[in-house]
């Protein structure tokens, strides 16, 4: 696989946390960094992925994360490091549970519980891939769509993301979806090859899951990402990993929003590999405010 090794290295660097054994109380302490960016808050997917890696460092290497449930409590400051405190809640015969708090300035910005499991045999079934998507190689890149814009955020999306994201449904970067349907789909993979580390691939998918998870809410109302005064923030995040996969190989991310109300919207998503196998499921509620509704 060829691609931009630089942007993938940014992802690997932020997932390589520093440990501090001397700082341990009832928590294992790790420190994560944030790459230089144009946003005024830390990307939520980054905090999720780093929290997973912090928790992973405290469990037996045979056990991999299979679910997480987390709440975003405060916006993260991109100019500060993030401290991760991992509490070892339980180690059973085949499952381990960990609570992770991500801290800045002594206050939690994310609170998460994750569960890890040793590989086991059992019943198997999964949803089929719900759409027939064109090959990702035939679709335009984000750089093709917004790389020409003279705006720092557009440049970041186009050239600095560690993932290549290609829309199956019409992109809504600059214009809303005229069909106003609460569904979306993208292909995605890292811009270059990743190490053969299952934990890294699962954490990286959590990172990428936050990119477009709330996009179907905007689509349902014909809104674009550039809608004047639009304010979006993730409130919580839940994720389940079903099968092994590689994030440096194309995954189809199929998204839907079942509801929006009270300045909140719910987004759900499923990840499928190119063989049509469901590898992960995700859900997130987000705050979505528009100036035409006012702040209540």
TrEMBL record:
Lineage, broadest ranks: Bacteria, Bacillati, Actinomycetota, Actinomycetes, Micrococcales
Cellular component aspect of the GO annotation: cytosol
Protein name from the UniProt record: Acyl-CoA thioesterase 2
Domain Acyl-CoA thioesterase 2 C-terminal: from-to ranges: 160-287
PANTHER family: ACYL-COA THIOESTERASE, ACYL-COENZYME A THIOESTERASE 8
UniProt keywords, alphabetically: Hydrolase, Lipid metabolism
Any Gene Ontology biological process: acyl-CoA metabolic process
Gene Ontology MF, one: fatty acyl-CoA hydrolase activity
Family from the record: Belongs to the C/M/P thioester hydrolase family.
Self-association and partners: Homotetramer.
Reactions that this protein is recorded to catalyse: a fatty acyl-CoA + H2O = a fatty acid + CoA + H(+)
Classification via CDD domains: Thioesterase_II_repeat1, Thioesterase_II_repeat2
UniProt key word Hydrolase: yes
Database matches in InterPro entries: Acyl-CoA_hotdog, Acyl_CoA_thio, HotDog_dom_sf, TesB_ACOT8-like_N, TesB_C
SUPFAM superfamilies in alphabetical order: Thioesterase/thiol ester dehydrase-isomerase
Domain Acyl-CoA thioesterase-like N-terminal HotDog: 39-117
Domain of life, source organism: Bacteria
Record has Cytoplasm as a keyword: no
Gene3D superfamilies: Acyl-CoA thioesterase, double hotdog domain (2.40.160.210)
